[in-house]
């Protein structure tokens, strides 16, 4: 199972996901060593640390995870209790963190290192319908932004994390959404017109 590990930059310490080696950068190095075309090894140690910290933050902000935090006020969204692997239908042992959460962080860290704008992007999808160059032309079935296939995360990251998302709706909207509610209850309509999926609010993490 994955674990919560720390990265120290200057006088500050940050919590990230790791694979139990007490050094999340080494965990990520080992993971990416088997990735074809990887560019992770070209980064400095500081760049790797910053990328992992940013990836952990984005994962916990962008995803509504299954279950609930094990300890109120814990630094990251995992470990969790009453969580389920939606792909297998099996319960995840309370107080644990699946390895795929750390692997998703490693994939997202490399993506952020290559394109830091993903941190504030509303979607990893596209509005492109047709691409043409000379006589060559490609037309997509449909744009992904504004559809149910929209994701704020790169596809390879989404694939690793998807099984552990809340079945009520796993990706939190970041823009173009409609919010409504009274008292302590708030819901989000992803299409801003009352026709989109409803989202529940996620707990924030630093």
Q: Can you offer a commentary on this structure?
A:
This protein is an alpha+beta fold. The chain has one domain (3-128, 142-174). It is built from four helices and eleven strands. The chain has helices at 24-32, 45-62, 99-114, 155-161, and strands spanning 3-9, 12-18, 68-69, 80-81, 84-85, 90-91, 130-133, 136-139, 178-180, 187-189, 198-199. Strands 9-10-11 form a three-stranded antiparallel sheet, with no helix packed on it. Strand 5 and strand 6 form a beta hairpin. Helix 2 crosses helix 3 and helix 3 (99-114) runs antiparallel to helix 4 (155-161). The longest helix is centred in the first third of the chain and has 18 residues, at 45-62. The radius of gyration is 18 Å and the shape is globular. It starts with a strand and ends in a 7-residue tail after the last strand. The model is unreliable at 123-129, 140-150 and 173-202 (pLDDT under 50).
Shape: globular
Arithmetic mean of pLDDT: 78
Strand content: 15-25%
DSSP strand tally: 11
**Elements, N to C (H/E):** EEHHEEEEHEEHEEE
What is the straight-line distance between the termini?
23 Å
Q: Give the total of domains.
A: 1
- Describe the biggest sheet? 3 strands, antiparallel
Overall helicity? 10-25%
Task: Give a summary of the structure in a few sentences.
It contains four helices and eleven strands, in the order ββααββββαββαβββ. It has 206 residues and is α+β, with helices and mostly antiparallel strands.
Give me the secondary-structure topology.
Elements: E1 3-9, E2 12-18, H1 24-32, H2 45-62, E3 68-69, E4 80-81, E5 84-85, E6 90-91, H3 99-114, E7 130-133, E8 136-139, H4 155-161, E9 178-180, E10 187-189, E11 198-199
Antiparallel strand pairs: 1-2, 3-4, 5-6, 7-8, 9-10, 10-11
């Amino acid at each position: 199972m994955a674990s919560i590990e720390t990265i120290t930059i200057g006088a500050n310490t940050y919590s990230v996901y790791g694979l139990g080696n007490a050094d999340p950068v080494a965990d990520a190095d080992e993971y990416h060593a088997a990735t074809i075309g990887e560019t992770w090894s070209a980064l400095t140690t500081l760049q790797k640390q910053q990328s992992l910290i940013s990836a952990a933050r984005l994962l916990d902000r962008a995803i509504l995870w299954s279950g609930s935090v094990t300890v109120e006020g814990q630094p990251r969204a995992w470990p969790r209790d009453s969580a389920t692997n939606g792909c297998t239908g099996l319960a995840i042992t309370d107080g644990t963190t699946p390895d795929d959460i750390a692997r998703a962080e490693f994939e997202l860290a490399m993506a952020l290192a290559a394109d830091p704008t993903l941190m504030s992007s509303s979607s990893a999808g596209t509005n492109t319908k047709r691409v043409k160059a000379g006589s060559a032309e490609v037309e997509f079935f449909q744009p992904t932004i504004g559809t149910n296939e929209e994701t704020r995360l790169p596809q390879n990251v989404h694939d690793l994390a998807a099984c552990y998302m809340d079945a009520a709706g796993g990706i939190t909207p970041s823009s173009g959404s409609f919010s409504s509610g009274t008292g302590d209850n708030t819901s989000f309509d992803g299409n801003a017109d009352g026709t989109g999926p409803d989202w529940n609010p996620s707990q924030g993490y630093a």
